[in-house]
Amino acid sequence: MDSDILKNIIQNSFNQAFEYCNAFELENIESEQRFRHANRSRIWIETFAKALLKASQQAEVSAENFQAFYRKNRKDDHQEDNNAQMFGLTEFLFDIVIAEMTEFDTASKKRHPHSKYAKLQAIRKAIWIVESEFKRKDSRALLLDMNKLVLGRAEHKLFIMSQDESDTQDWAIETLNTLSKEDDAKIFLARIPHPCDWGKPHKNVEVFEIPYVQEKI
Fold it and tell me: Does some domain include residue 44?
């Protein structure tokens, strides 16, 4: 997947999340600001995870074995319910994981061959791992989540941060460039509006493929 395709997926997901949250917040006008921002972040992750799974399935032959892992938010999310049954959790190590799944017989299958627990699902490989950190002007918080991506192994890696006008924007690109020098994954950095800025005039999402050489003025 190239940066233009990824940018379209992120932009469309952001637009959908914004529209959903806007309608929800009109019905719950008295909700606390802190709650609104947290809810926006969760809805964004959920919307983007589903879109990224769909795009990955369209690009791969073995798509029927793909699964998305992300933090549960809406009660009617059947994708998340399946994950909870499979592993006892919905979020798996990273904010989002798109994984190719495989299956194993349990050790007790010979004794209980017809049991519904005779098969176990497992992750064969990660197609995408995604980390997001929306704190602005906080190098330490950004670096912590970048470190998680360095530790993980996947075909694609994505780091998402908030848009702002501080030096942190360029610092994040330079730092991820350095950390990923020996990584053979396809790596991207994306900037999207901070949850507190939704509804205000803002730039479109930005996506950079790493390593990225910044233009010098």
Answer: yes
